[in-house]
Amino acid sequence: MADWNIKKPEGVCSICGREFETDEEFYAGLVDGQEGFERIDTCIGCWQEKKPRTFYFWKTKMPQPEEKGKQKFLNDETMLEFLEKLEQSEEPEKINFRFVLMLVLVRKRILRYKDTFSRDGKDYWRLKITGQDKMVEVLDPHIGEEQIEKLSENIGDIMLLEDE
Description:
Layout: E1 25-33, E2 36-43, H1 44-50, E3 56-61, H2 76-85, H3 92-107, E4 111-119, E5 122-129, E6 135-139, H4 145-159
Helix pairs in contact: 2-3, 3-4
């Protein structure tokens, strides 16, 4: 498994290098890098002119100085959308990433474990989305605790998840 080195948001546009103002909206996105996902942050102007090819993106804003470290850049709905977007991927790194993202959503009580089943010789977790009738199936790649820990750190870096 690749040991992704995903940078944390730096408060500057990845394209023009301009620093974001407080409360300024910008786009954050994930691009496919040589060793997995890489996060980019792009000001609205650069996004409109040079929209980078992203695997997934979301619109957010630069927090007030007193809010830094408290704000979640991705809400629960956006994280669920990202989980769905990863469903079609067959790349081992993205399958692993999706599994750990699912674990984060279980921890946040957004998903609830229902059962495990096998299909085509592979194990899957079936989960219910809290407050909805919709179910989600996630392939279990049978990764170890060390890999889960590394990927959890990367998910936190990408999405600025709080330690709850």
